[in-house]
Specification:
- By secondary structure, this protein is mainly β.
- It has one domain (about 5-65).
- It is built from 1 helix and 3 strands; from the N terminus they run βαββ.
- The protein has one helix at about 10-20; strands spanning about 5-10, 30-40, 50-65.
- Strands 1-3-2 form a 3-stranded mixed β-sheet, with no helix packed on it.
């Protein structure tokens, strides 16, 4: 199973909690929040004029998960 990566937006309190917990790149987290999809159309490159979307999560809370080992 491949991991998914999203842009996550946190308030100051949640961001400070992440820092104090020592969360680093590659840490497995369970994120609670609202997913927003923002559609757009590519204007340049090989995908010009094709539809795409950007996923954004407004985080309400988070918790640690154990890493999945293949």
């Amino acid at each position: 199973m491949n991991p998914f990566f999203y842009q996550c937006y946190l308030n100051k309190h949640l961001a400070e909690r992440l820092l104090k917990a020592g969360v680093k790149k590659g840490t497995c987290l369970y994120i609670y929040g609202e997913l927003e999809l923002h559609p757009f159309v590519y204007s340049q490159g090989q995908r010009a004029d094709q539809a795409g979307s950007v996923a954004k999560i407004n985080v309400r809370d988070w918790q640690f998960l154990e890493a999945m080992v293949p």
